[in-house]
Fold this sequence. Notes:
The protein is α/β, with parallel strands linked by helices and 173 residues long.
Amino acid sequence: MFDQRPQVLIAEDETIIRLDLRQILEDEGFAVCAEARDGIEAVELARVSAPDVAIVDLKMPRLDGIEAARRMYAERPLPIVILTAYGDRPTLERAIGAGVFAYVTKPFRPADVVAALLSALARHDELLAARREMGRREEPIEVEVVSPSGQTWPLRLGRRPDGTIDVSLQKIK
Length: 173
């Protein structure tokens, strides 16, 4: 599946869990390129180490994992897996809204972590391929965006001759 070992950023404030994750990942053919002890450090290390994928604990000092994931993804889209003891629906929805690709609850089995990382990498590759395909399209795309208040905004997305994207509001029906 991979030409080389995927580079992983681990962000986990508990040293024992971070070491366990490192061992699991290295045993499964991943390379750990960076380890963070808090959310701020995770964002900084994602910037300088350019990982292929990140596994980020939800509850960390200085910046929680969901906000760290949001910032990492905003700077450089990469697949992110959240690791947490909190499996409730609102937390899961916050994580998905931040761009997280997979979610693993503690306590975890090594197979759960590996499956989540491989799945996140695969889904991210599919997303990038879809974006590239959309970028090659010459015909405009028409979509409707619904605001939180329920207002519908029909938009047309097209490519200008210089390659930039033209977004225009269509007549409201």
